[in-house]
Amino acid sequence: MRPEVKKKMTETVLEEKKLDEKWEPKIIAFLCNWCSYAGADLAGVSRIQYPPNIRIVRVPCSGRINPYFIIKSLTDGWDGVLISGCHPGDCHYISGNLVARRRFAILNELLEFFGIEPGRVNFMWASAAEGERFANLVKKTTKIVKEIGPNTKFQKEW
Amino acid sequence: MGIDTENQEIENSIREIAKKLLSENQVDVIIGYAEGTIPLSSTPIFIRKEEDVNKLIWNNLCYINLANYLVPLMPQLCDSEGNALKIGIVAKGCVGRAVNHLAVEKQVDLEKVKMIGIRCNGIVNRSKINLEIGEKEILEVSISGNDIIVKGKDWEKKFPYDQYINDLCKVCKVKSPSASNETCVGECEEIESIHDEFADVIDFESKSSEEKWNYIKEALEPCTLCYSCRQACPLCYCNLCFVDQNLPVWFGKTAELPDIIVFHLIRAFHLAGRCVACGACSSVCPVGIDLNMITRKLEKIVKDRYDFTSGLNAETLPPMMDFKMEDTEEFMLEED
Predict the structure, then answer these.
(1) Which residues fall within 8 angstroms of residue A5, CB to CB, at 6 or more apart?
(2) What values do phi and psi take at B192, rounded to 5?
(3) Does the predicted interface ipTM exceed a cut of 0.85?
(4) What's residue B234's pLDDT?
(5) Which single residue of B8, B24, B63, B191 could bond B283 by disulfide (Cβ 3.0 to 4.6 Å)?
(6) CB of A7 within 8 Å of any CB in chain B?
(7) Quick one: pLDDT at residue A22?
(8) Which of B212, B323, B333 lies nearest to residue A98, judging by beta carbons?
(9) Half-sphere exposure of B283 (CA within 13 A, CB side)
(10) Is 90 exceeded by the pLDDT of residue B251?
(11) In what order do the strands lie in the sheet with A121-125?
(12) Predicted local confidence at residue B135, as pLDDT
């Protein structure tokens, strides 16, 4: 198939995907083991409803989240990325989230500079006791990513 | 005073200091610039003997950042037991910054390095000249008065120097190394902080995401992932670069645009708070991509957020090696 035809076809498919009312974003969530993952657990056992769009990856600490993970998630086609860790000062490893915060701040600005829509990658803090907050922020993230639409910028043409 | 006389003066001072350092045995080897093997270029040279100092040159084509040869330590710069020799390095402002920054990252022992400080008068934008000349072959480049004269077979072209200087050099505030007299001989001054308007970056930031993406897409499209920018960068010294890691493969090695953008995104991220704004990456780019716009943005981020400028001294910790409880976090999601 000629590349321009192929390109046109992908474009149409994506356009349809965007217009499709039933389209639901897929969001990858990196949650730290000690706070946010437990927070998600609490939201679950408390039967608080939140959108089923997130797929959780449990990591030891938000400091473990390499910016590569975030960029690779985007290139692999995830529509959104959510990163959550302990509140500053509550880190199980004392300062992991403070180190991570600097990284995220720079990465966030850099992504914006490269023209990735702000809101494609989201960062939040949630402690183990904040099931409600976790659910609310997941709802918010899903809403934001839904408004931005499918992640097409990193789609390869073949 | 013309650029050529300025160059001559700088060149003379380099040779004089180099001669003195070698004769007094203060250094064992001097890293400097020599005439390039092809026109419109220069090449690094290691000088060990006093009588060779006249091979050292200075002109506006000395775009290489010589700090690149300090890490990892090359066998040429070690004695028979593998210990570092005492090294003299011809340092324009950005080389000085790179040496300082490498010292903060504990890659360079400042006691073994002596900078030969010069007051840089700017570097020529090679890709801009190459672009205007096009396919024709350049045979000779000379600088006379305030013009760069490029000669080929039966043609000659004049480029006014101030228009063909690197954009980074136009806004450069660290012309000579920011170091004390102990580590630097020749021109040097200790700079505490610099003020930069970042007008060019602010202008770009005001665009919408779609415009930014299109601009970046167009700018990076010609990239062939040759990794010249990585090789030329004095701060890219990882033993195993992320592009060579294959478990997992962080990005595809095709010439597709997403892969190119991911490479530049991660490369830029690695230089956050580390880039010394020498412009070596853009100077060596075979397809003439202006990578400076990205590195300028990085400088702005760390300046705004953490009030840090890399390489001004060998003590301050760079932002990515440090953290504070009260760092800004306005980008974090909050409940409505």
Answers:
(1) none
(2) -90, -45
(3) yes
(4) 95
(5) B63
(6) no
(7) 84
(8) B323
(9) 26
(10) no
(11) A54-59, A27-32, A80-85, A121-125
(12) 85
Quick check: B331 and A104 in contact, CB under 8 A?
Answer: yes
Examine the pLDDT at A157 and tell me if it is beyond 80: no
Tell me: the pLDDT tens digits for B17-61? 999 999 999 999 999 999 999 888 999 999 999 999 999 999 999
Residue A109 lies in a domain: yes
Domain membership of residue A138 (yes or no) is: yes
d(CA A112, CA A158): 26
pLDDT at B213 over 90: yes
Amino acid at B27: V
CB contact under 8 A, A116 and B213: yes
* Residue A66 touches partner B, C-beta closer than 8 Å: no
The partner residue sitting opposite A102, judged by closest CB among B256, B327, B333, is: B327
* High-pLDDT (> 70) share of chain B, %: 100
Least confident of A45-49, A119-123, B245-249: B245-249
Report the pLDDT value the prediction gives residue B182, as an integer from 0 to 100. Answer: 87
Residue range of the domain that includes A80: 25-148
| Interstrand relation of B87-91 and A121-125 (parallel, antiparallel or unpaired) | unpaired
pLDDT band at A84 (very low <50, low <70, confident <90, very high): very high
Rg (CA), chain A: 17
Contact B323 A95 (CB under 8 A): yes
B333 vs A contacts (CB less than 8 Å)? 122-124, 137, 140-141
In a domain, A6, yes or no: no
CATH number at residue A88: 3.40.50
- Residue A116 forms contact with B (CB below 8 Å): yes
Contact B57, B8 (CB under 8 A): no
Domain count, chain A: 1
Residue B1 has pLDDT above 80, yes or no: no
Residue B159 has a pLDDT of 92
In-domain check, residue A158: no
